[in-house]
Write a structure and sequence with these properties.
The chain is mostly helical. It has 33 helices and no strands.
């Protein structure tokens, strides 16, 4: 405050006198100054300049004299040298060398206030660049090259590899043009090597991304051989990767080692990764000893999970038990470098801390930690399952050793999972009792493990059809963990087999509420709706499941079977699903036969023949398919080709006379009467009481003039007489049974049982309607026709239209079933997958 001077009210203005100046320095009146003008025109003004008294100033404080005005020393109010202003009462100017920009307190001489100088007009335009100069052309070309490299990288990031390659090639052409232009202008010394390196490296990278390996290797070779590029030797790693992809492992190892020699020990992480690649290449070549050398070095310098797992694989391949154990111990001791899960649990009621924990609970870092931990657990579980049977005399002892090691490591929670995998291994070995005993050990464990073990036990008992035990363990699993979808599915399965479909549907729906992606629950729910007759809801369930499992043959089959009931009006939807099904399982004969049946119902015989024939190729024992193919060839007048199908049917069902009669009929239709006669004789020897065969023998022998005609005619009469007797017995038996039912007597009731049994036996003996019964339940009826007259030709009877069956005019009539393939009913369709595989995932 002592340096601050406050002006009193009665003091004079501090700025008084700044506008007063010496008129001697007023240059505006020099044109009218006679003395000044004379000095300018004569030698009077050519006097030498005054020397400075003090350095740094033009005047030394001497009086400044001019031809106008008095000579008197001038000083400023602050003791500074006088300024070049003259005293003039008309134009005031402060006595200072610094004045406000454009500001003056007096506007006496017509000056205006223009601090920005706008009155002078706009500034002149900037001088335009001349792009025709060589330097400008070179700069523009360099910018284009850099832009093309950037566009190529962006296209690669977006997945458009072809565009990325095109941009990289164009950048290479532009860069070569740039080099030529510099050479022409004589500025070759200014060639940018970094730009050339970038162009070549990007081009090689894009070649490799587009699987143009030869071009990529050639481009990398150009970079590596140029000694002017610094650290180009590291690109030999990329070349080695290409050789590895080509499965040229020796050359890949060579280039990995060359790259390793050119990388200093300071880059430890890169050297470790290259050595890991060398170890993997040796494993692919089967040189496990060399691979072990590299992997052991990595585990001693910088251990990691993948290297430890590969090392266990190598020792397993050479069968070294002790090394397997030591490697497993090293594997479970590898630090993961992640934080404990406890830090994500709120420790107090501090709202700020809870908000922070909630924010980081599912961030990208925590997700990465979970993925790393899950990968480590996967490798440890796989290693344990791999080496357990090999490190001890039995796999059970090996599993026990692995469990003990895991319990003493940071992966304690994996011990229970290993025990469950031990039980699953027993299942794979068909040792169900040991599997059950192992799982029963978990009944007193914590709820999660207990629920998993009870779920597997329920599944095992369900497979053994011990539904009571399956239901018991399903309840146990549900009580331990109500949100376990596998337990709910098993419970639903036990209710499903008791035909309580409504309750089963409720359990499946609850499983879906707990886990919307549970495919087993959705599949079983669709089957339940199908059993309840709710076809629309079943169709909706399977369509949802198809959206999840696009290539599931079971789901496609269910969708096709649900559309088949509507195929009488529009079979195209069922055909479309069956076409998708055979794209997944192209060798399923039943699906091919069903497609043939649907096309046959539409009248498309050529497509039906194609699918029936494919079905026959994959399963040549389907009687329905054989029958349709034989009838098709007869319909198209190729009886010779039909013979092979009916002969195969004869081999499948040798006790069915109808197929042998069809073979003989085909010979007769094709005009080979001698072969037909031999076939009929052979049939007569096997089935001497078959009247149909005897009729054809009589007819053929008569036309061919053979002596055996009388013998066969006599046998035919005997057979027909026996047939009449049997028919009378059947008729009387039916009348007696009807009379017995009316009378209600016990004795006649016994005859009611006996007579039908007798009639069935006689029918089987006669070789008529019962001959069509096959092992698979196909029913073939035989219709006997009267013998034609002697003057009637063989083809006198008109051939019936072959739509669903072939009718032989003089032979048996075969009715083809409606379904060419065996129809899978709800009881037997996909029995092993119908209720889902509910074993917990490994």
């Amino acid at each position: 405050m002592e340096n601050i001077h406050l002006a009193a009210e009665d003091e004079d203005d501090l700025y008084t006198g700044y506008n007063d100046f010496n008129p001697t320095f007023d240059s505006e009146d020099l044109d009218n100054d006679v003395g000044f003008q004379q000095a300018v025109r004569t030698s009077h003004g050519r006097r030498p300049p005054m020397t400075a008294k003090f350095p740094g100033t033009a005047i030394g404080g001497r009086p400044i004299g001019t031809s106008f005005g008095s000579r008197m020393p001038m000083g400023s109010s602050m003791g500074r040298p006088a300024t070049g202003a003259v005293q003039d009462a008309g134009a005031a100017r402060p006595m200072t060398a610094v004045r406000a920009a454009g500001y003056s307190s007096s506007l006496a001489r017509g000056s205006t206030f223009d601090p920005l100088g706008q009155s002078k007009g706009p500034a002149p335009p900037l001088e335009a660049k001349n792009e025709d100069t060589p330097e400008e052309k070179i700069k523009i070309l360099e910018k284009k090259v850099n832009d093309l490299i950037e566009e190529s990288c962006m296209a690669q990031a977006n997945g458009d590899l072809q565009l990325a390659l095109e941009k990289a090639k164009e950048a290479g052409r532009k860069e070569r043009a740039l080099v030529r232009q510099r050479e022409q202008t004589g500025t070759a010394d200014h060639i940018t090597l970094d730009l050339t390196y970038s162009v070549l490296f990007n081009l090689a990278n894009q070649y490799a991304n587009n699987d143009m390996n030869t071009e990529a290797l050639n481009t990398y070779q150009v970079i590596v051989k140029n000694k002017m590029f610094n650290n180009a030797g590291r690109l030999k790693v990329n070349m080695a990767n290409i050789y590895f992809k080509q499965k040229n492992y020796p050359k890949a190892i060579k280039f990995y080692r060359m790259a390793l020699d050119q990388i200093s020990n300071a880059h430890t992480e890169m050297r470790i990764k290259i050595m890991q690649n060398i170890g993997v290449a040796f494993i692919r070549m089967g040189q496990y000893s060399d691979a072990i050398t590299s992997l052991e070095h990595i585990m001693s310098e910088s251990p990691n999970i993948k290297t430890g797992f590969n090392l266990i694989l190598c020792y397993y391949a050479i069968g070294d038990r002790e090394k397997m154990k030591k490697s497993f111990q090293k594997l479970i001791c590898v630090p993961l470098g992640i934080d404990e899960e406890d830090k994500y649990i709120p420790a107090n009621d501090d709202p700020h801390t809870n908000l922070v924990i909630e924010a980081i609970k599912n961030d990208q870092l925590h997700q990465m930690e979970r993925e790393r931990k899950a990968l480590a657990e996967k490798y440890i579980m796989t290693s344990a399952k791999l080496i357990a049977p090999a490190i001890e005399t039995s796999f059970a002892a090996g599993f026990d050793w692995c469990v003990d090691m895991v319990k003493s490591s940071q992966y304690v929670e994996l011990a229970n999972d290993l025990e469950i995998n031990k039980a699953i291994t027993y299942l794979r070995q068909k040792d169900f009792n040991q599997a059950v005993e192992t799982l029963k050990m978990f009944e007193k464990k914590d709820s999660r493990v207990k629920s998993a073990a009870a779920t597997n036990l329920s599944f095992l008992y369900f497979l053994e059809k011990d539904f009571d035990q399956a239901d018991r363990y399903a309840d146990l699993a549900m009580n331990a963990d109500r949100y376990n979808p596998a337990a709910l599915i098993n419970k639903g399965n036990t209710v499903f087999v008791k035909q309580d479909y409504e309750k089963a549907a409720e359990f499946y729906k609850e499983a879906l509420r707990n886990d919307s992606s549970c495919t087993e629950a959705l599949y079983n729910l669709g089957l339940t709706h199908k059993r309840l007759g709710r076809l629309e809801e079943a169709l909706d369930s399977f369509i949802k499941l198809h959206a999840i499992l696009r290539n599931s043959a079971q789901v496609m089959y269910q969708l096709a079977s649900l559309n088949i009931p509507y195929s009488s009006n529009d079979p195209h939807q069922a055909i479309e699903w069956l076409m998708q099904l055979i794209s997944v399982t192209p060798t399923d004969p039943w699906v091919l036969a069903k497609l043939g049946e649907l096309y046959d119902s539409e009248g498309d015989k050529s497509q039906a023949f194609q699918y029936y024939y494919e079905s026959f190729r994959y399963f040549p024992s389907n009687i329905s398919v054989i029958e349709w193919l034989g009838a098709y060839y007869i319909d198209t007048q190729f009886c010779e080709k039909a013979i092979q199908y009916f002969e195969r049917a004869t081999l499948i069902q040798p006790n069915q006379v109808v197929w042998q009669l069809m073979v003989a009929s085909c010979y007769r239709r094709s005009g080979n009467y001698q072969k037909a006669l031999e076939t009929y004789k052979d049939i007569h020897r096997k089935f001497p009481d078959n009247a149909e065969c005897l009729r054809f023998l009589v007819r053929l022998c008569t036309d061919m003039g053979l002596k055996e005609v009388q013998e066969y005619a006599t046998k035919l009469k005997k057979v027909e007489k026996m047939k009449e007797i049997r028919e009378q017995r059947v008729k009387s038996g039916r009348e007696n049974s009807a009379r017995g039912r009316r009378e209600g007597s016990a004795s006649s009731g016994e005859w009611t049982i006996l007579f039908p049994h007798l009639s069935v036996s006689n029918l089987q003996y006669s070789g008529q309607s019962s001959h069509g019964a096959s092992a698979k339940g196909e029913r073939l009826s035989v219709t006997l026709r009267s013998l034609p007259g002697s003057n009637e030709p063989y083809e006198a009877s008109s051939q019936g239209e072959i739509d669903a069956s072939y009718v032989d005019p003089l032979g048996p009539q075969i009715e083809r079933p409606k379904t060419a393939a065996k129809k899978r009913t709800d009881e037997d369709e996909f029995e092993d997958e119908e209720l889902g595989d509910d074993l917990l995932p490994e």
